[in-house]
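Researcher: Batch entry, complex prediction.
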Amino acid sequence: MSTQNRWLIWIFLAPTMVLMGVLLYYPMIGTVVESFYDTSFISPEPRFVGWAVYEKVWNSRQFPQVVWNSVVWTLGVVLLQNLLGFFVAMLLNQGLPAQGMLRALVLLPFVLPGVVTAILWRFMYDPQLGLINSLMIRLGLVEDNAAWLASSDTAMAAVIFVAVWKGFPFSMLIFLAALQSVDRSQLEAATLDGAGPWRRLIDVTLPAIKPVILVNVVLTLILTFNYFDIVWVMTRGGPQNATHIFPTRIFETGFGQFRFGEAAVYGVFSILILAVLAALYVIVQKTADGRRRTA
Amino acid sequence: MTQSPQTRAVLMLAQVMLALFILIPFFWMLSVSLKPATEPFAIPARLWPADPTLENYVTAFRPEFRTYFLNSMIVSGSTVVITVTLALLAAYSFARGTLLILSGLMALVVLAQMFPHSAIIIPIYKLMRAADLLNTYASLIIAYVSVTLPVAIWMLRGFLLKLPISLEEAAAIDGAGPLRIFFGIVVPLARPGIIATAVYVLIVTWQEFLFALSFTSTQDMRTLPVGLNDFIGQYGIRYGELMASSVMVSMPVIALFFFLQRYFVAGLTAGAVKG
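Model: Structure tokens for the complex:
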């Protein structure tokens, strides 16, 4: 674009900048402001209270539970989703029959709408009517009708499983693209040197795609931390808050109980956590780019 | 690479297990949706109905469902058109502009991708309330356009950066104005990127739940995900209808995805795996 057309750049950018400013960046600040005000259903007029709401949230019994649940949920989903995604990418990169069809099929859960996924799996987990208990009883794995989502011992694991089922295709897709970009001559050279499949994986493949693995992990950390629909539709944060994570807690306090101040405090905490993750993402991406340039 | 017959057998078995892991829930959803109300699905259930019927689909396609479907089409359709248009304009500026400030703005776009929707929703809700837009299509469309813009810009910018700039330069030498270059050369060449981005935006907005749940308050404004969630309470035990509705909600995006898969996969992986 030539110099005299610089105005065009700004005309093209203007709508985006206005929308992002008003609906993304302003609300970011708005949440911080909101967290210093107390609002409730009984007194809907916001009242400035300083750090009072923070103190209330910090000292509540739910807060440590929400933090702990979010850690378990995020780490559990990210770890399992990327491990499974990696192994499936390896599997579908072996040149086996039906591989092309499977590559397309595997993406189905990723496209299935979140609420549909949640409803489908709620049904799968149903103690009496669900397929899981039906299969497990036939196989003799469980004797009674286990209530996977209604017991606080199993609910979190059950929800994590569903998120992994829906999320691993995304990781797989990125890993598969990375695997296909691995230099074939290096792999062949390693084979000639007598390296078996494991050695090739550890010595050639993994170092080559390490940047993609790191970016993938941090990206899924951010996406998973922000998850709402599957958890809300499957458990509403229950039973006994066993699956309440930041997004479900914010929605419940904000729009279930209209305690905006309290919801905003949870919002500020999740922004802080995400800021750390975002910084991590930038660092990982930078080093990944740097390595690519020097390679 | 050649594998021993044993390794091959193990890998084939792994492929079969993978296919089962993916497909069993889908199979179950279809099976139950085709089951007549008279046929029990309690344990021990038949895996496939003895007399498959579409009666659940007929019942599930009730007036409310049709309203939700129409609402979803209006909201998602408008969002796709507006987001892709605005993102293409912005992405072009980011891809071709050389001003230093643009890289700073692009960093703000990338950062905005990571904003947690639940953490910014209360101020957005208050804005919509102040503008008297709650419970309207506009509130959802505006919110969806804003939250899908950053990723759309990022995807399209990746595509535009790969286009050869020489064509645009040649056209400029021939005396074509900037707008003519943009609409006559850039837009047609960027078509694969535009399709990929549109599919992405559609998949995201078709299933969006948090904003739709918070901003709509009456039945006639509900979108499909929220409507479907309401069905759990209303028809909790009638799984046949619930599954038939689920199939109908999923069909449009799944069909579209399979038609346009090539573009979409290229679009998603282009940004994440450069070079």
